[in-house]
Every structure is written in C-alpha cells, then in structure tokens.
Amino acid sequence: MHTPDTAAGAPRKPLIRKAAEAFMAITLALMVVAVFSNVVLRYAFGTGLVIYEELSRLLFVWLVCMGTVVTAHEKRHLSFDLLVDRVGPRTRAAMDALATLVAAVVLGMVVKGAWDQVIAGLHSYSPVIGYPLAIAAAATLFMAAAMEVLLFKQAVLDRRRDRT
Question: Which are the contacts of 94, defined by CB distance < 8 A and separation ≥ 6?
C-alpha cells in the first residue's frame, strides 16, 4: 500500500519495490559494462571475454523476469480490451474471472516447469563460468511464483476490499 510522502506529496514506494528497482539497475549496469567491454575488446584487439557473454545472458534473464514482476504489480502489462469494453458489467465480470482463471492455470504450469528446470539445473553447470544452470531457471520460477501471488492478491484480496 502506498502512503503519501509528506515532503514531496508523491506516493512512497514500498521497500520491496525499491529493492526490485535497485536490483534491475545494478543488473543493467553490469550488463552494460560486460557488453561494452566485449565490444571494445573485439574492436580494438580482435578478442573478447567469453565470461562476459555468459554473464550478460544470465543477467538479462534475471532483468527481464524481475521487470515482468514489477510490471505485473503495477498492472501495466499490455492488454487487449476491445471486446471487454463493449460488454455489460456482468459479462465483463465473467470475462475477468475467466481470464484470471486461465492466467492462474498457465502460471501454475510455468511454476511447475521452472521448478523442474531448477531441479535439473542443480547438477548442470554453465560451460564457461561454471555456475549451476538452476540459477538461470530460478529467474523464471521466481517470476511465475511472484506473478501467481500478485494474481491471487488482485483477484481475491483486492476485489474483496473493493466490495466493502
């Protein structure tokens, strides 16, 4: 829940949101350094660091997954509401319920698949850096699980609060 900031008049961001944004900023900065360094090394010396390619790929996966969760929290994902805007409130409520149910099922399948990949990746390692591939799969697991929690919050808790 946002509380007004008395000094600036703007809503204060929750700590978890600030942490997510800091994580994304650090991840992006590390990616920029890694990719830029490789470009300079390739252009100037005809070589590059393979470790940076693998690192930037891993960081990109985590950046996208974290950004997806932040976007879901803000309810800013793309939506197609051409049909929903043209129906009555009861039909719209039914369509919203169906969409929520489908999203919950799909996210559940993603959680299950990502969990399987995490388990499989515990004993598989990246070829250059040598980190367990479970770390990369954990990004998708985190994303799907967090979005499932957000979906539950929006579908159940927020609707229950709106009715009162």
Answer: none
